[in-house]
Amino acid sequence: MTDVHQTPCPHCGSRSFVDDRIVEHDCGHVASLEAFSDGCEKCGRSAADEELSPLQTIDRCLDCGHRSSSSSPSSDAESTGPLPIVTFPTLPSSEDHLNWVPARLVPESQRARQLFSTVLVVMVLVAGIAGAVSVTPMLEDEPAEPASVDRSWEEYDSIVVFRNDDIQPWYNQDELRAVNQVFLDEEVPVTLGIIPDTAGEATLTDDPELCSYLRSLEADAPGQFEMALHGYTHEQETDFYGGSEFGDLPREEQRERLADGEALLADCIESPSSTFIPPMNTYDETTTEVLAESNYTTVSGGQWFTDQYYGDPNSTVFEAGGLTHVPETQAFEDWNAYGESGDDEDDVPFHDLETMTDSFDEAHANGDVHVVMLHYQYFTTEERLQQLESLIQHMNGEDDVAFMTIEQLSVGLETGAVEETDDGWRVLEPIAEVSR
């Protein structure tokens, strides 16, 4: 069908084009549909309709023959740009008697001529195959569409989020891997709070082994490990609510610290999340404003703090200042008992398993979001790792608990993939597929 284009042909200026349907023969030969009218020139067989697979439709200029992407792709194939036509060279036949070869190159004896002809045929065949192979990558320029994922709504009584804080360079790497292995073995997602420049003296990018490990988690367990920014230096800068790195700092200083931390995290990993975890679990309204301006969706501090600062919100998860607030509700570490028995800095006492399971059971019975905070560096014994594993298995024993990262919960609420109901939650699974 001849068409008049608003855009002229870039080669000759003509506006007259005809649709060329590009198809593939069963043997792999790709050409326009017209080229198969007398059979396939590659394999020599017929080219019935059932033997031809449509690839796309392109525009061919009637005046100069130039081809370009079609502005109106056919219904049975998407337009993906012009495809090269793969053709094979015509082999010399026995009747040619080498007339096409310069006389000075043709051997005199009959036997030598036969050998010469054989060599030429082989050379032509190799050239044709090499040409076809070289074109193959061009045919695959467009990335394949990702496999579609079947998603369905699932009902849950409660939601559980794990938050592992203080990931930092050169610090208890064996413990970090051991804790993450528990989550891998139990197939439970977790949000990692990553410090970009510990005490202003140790940057993430100075520890390539840690960055390589974090990137391997992203690649090998997609959707299971959220990489969240955990402050900038993780040092106390003010006395805001007992201590804060960001709360009560001037707006510009908060913005600079956030930007500097973002840059380091982005240089270390592939996919920083839209969650911010403030050190010491404290932040102010300026922090939320700066975060919202920087396209963060979520802030995760401590519930003890949000209850005081935001006047005891009606629910654990709430909206304020343009962000979703997802505070931790239960810590593994028993900070109230810290120091009572002469504990050193690396031996912070834990709540016992019964306390941890009771805390979850209460949240589960009330249909709440339960956010468990832990610090990997204190999981220094097999007994402590076993406690984490036992807690997860206790939660999994309920069969109606949704596990997700902070970002998956927040973005799920934003996009409608997570909905609160009268007696629990509806989640569009797999929640790992949620995106902004």
Commentary on this structure:
- It is a single chain.
- Strands 7, 8, 11, 12, 13, 14, 15, 16, 17 and 18 form a ten-stranded mixed beta sheet that branches. Strands 1, 2, 3, 4 and 5 form a five-stranded antiparallel beta sheet that branches. The chain has a three-stranded antiparallel beta sheet with strand order 6-20-19.
- The protein is an alpha/beta fold and 436 residues long.
- 33% of the residues are buried.
- It starts with a strand and ends in a 7-residue tail after the last strand.
- Helix 2 packs parallel to helix 8.
- The protein has helices spanning 110-139, 173-186, 208-220, 251-268, 285-293, 303-309, 353-365, 382-396, 406-415, and strands at 2-4, 16-25, 30-32, 52-61, 67-69, 152-156, 158-167, 190-194, 197-198, 202-203, 225-229, 272-276, 298-299, 318-320, 323-325, 330-331, 369-375, 401-403, 418-421, 424-429.
- It is elongated and about 105 Å long.
- Residues 69-96 have low confidence and may be disordered.
- The chain is built from nine helices and 20 strands.
